[in-house]
Amino acid sequence: MLTSVQTPNRDFTAETSGRLVRSLVFFALLALMLISLPSYSATQSSAQSIDPELRNALKDAVNSSESFEDKYDAQVWLVDMSARLKRYIKNDKQRLELLSLIHKEASRAGLSPELVLSVIQVESAFDRFALSYVGAQGYMQVMPFWKKEIGRTDDNLMHPATNLRYGCTILKHYLDKEKGDWIRALARYNGSLGRTKYPEKVMLTWERHWFVNY
Question: Which residue is catalytic, options 97, 105, 114, 123?
């Protein structure tokens, strides 16, 4: 059973009949690729208006590490997502490594991995070295001032695991702050609270490219 995560009006649960089919596809894909799976925003406000709770949450997050609670279900999920991500990342091993990290960090934060994928597509188009004109970095376009705020100035936000840990923690904080309101949470993440263009773009990306019903 997949761990419980927050999604916008969707249930993230597995269906028994679909699971058997997905498992067969999963093992077939692994045989073809001959690889082993690893275990394992733009402007999130400004440095002048730091949320103390978010700073503490981020500090705790970067100092902890968790693995998948259910590796089988996570790997089944990887089969589906790998096919969808291939247009952005051609290398099979790199693609699965990134998906493993995304699933891990999203699940750790209590977020839907598919929503995190949607945010990444909108923010950076899966370019780990993306750099915005205001200085936001990496997959989830994390602002570098956060490193100083939590006392980790040596962290590399272009490093996938680090970027995802920061980004997922920040997004989850805003979701909690907005009591589950994804529109407002995503707007906060993007630094555009009060406007809906960015949240609607992320949600449309989720519906079109990353939504799952298993």
Answer: 123
